């Protein structure tokens, strides 16, 4: 099975990226970081959150969202947002799909979300308490593990 791809567009919080890197290492998922980053990936806090898994992660850093989109034009992409009706469990993920997540404070831009609205997905939440969304690393885990589940966790023990 081709591994999935997690794409963090302009991540801001080092521990979130470190936790996501650890998940990617343990699932054989490629991690894409799209600049500008709110930190250096050499920072101690990112390494601490990723523990000793950081060196085991297949990471690709992109200078901009435009560079990323140009390189992967035509690839299967899903866009995580709170601004759609379709849930992450409503879709069948293609092997090798890219799942994009936006920065912690703003999410993905309207321009990115408009690229393919049929591919926008959300995680159901109780909005009556006034919270905007789940933590980024939790959101990545929820959606990634659904994609992996659809392939019977191929390659994982």
Question: What is the overall shape?
Answer: globular
Report the average pLDDT across residues.
92
Counted beta strands: 6
The CATH homologous superfamily corresponds to SPOUT methyltransferase, trefoil knot domain
The level-1 CATH class: Alpha Beta
Span between termini:
14 Å
Q: DSSP strand (E) fraction?
A: 15-25%
Q: Could you say what the CATH architecture is?
A: 3-Layer(aba) Sandwich
Low-confidence stretches: none
Order of helices and strands: EHEHEHEEHEH
Fraction in helix:
25-40%
Q: For the report, how would you describe the main beta sheet?
A: 6 strands, parallel
Structural class: alpha/beta
Number of helices: 5
Radius of gyration: 15 Å
The CATH topology turns out to be Alpha/beta knot
Please indicate the count of domains.
1
Strand order of the largest sheet: 3-2-1-5-4-6
List keywords for this structure.
157 residues, alpha/beta, Alpha/beta knot, 6-stranded parallel sheet, 5 helices, 15% strand, globular
Structure description:
Strands 3-2-1-5-4-6 form a six-stranded parallel β-sheet. With 157 residues, it is α/β, with parallel strands linked by helices. 29% of the residues lie in helices and 15% in strands. Helix 1 (14-27) runs parallel beside helix 2 (44-50) and helix 1 (14-27) packs parallel to helix 5.
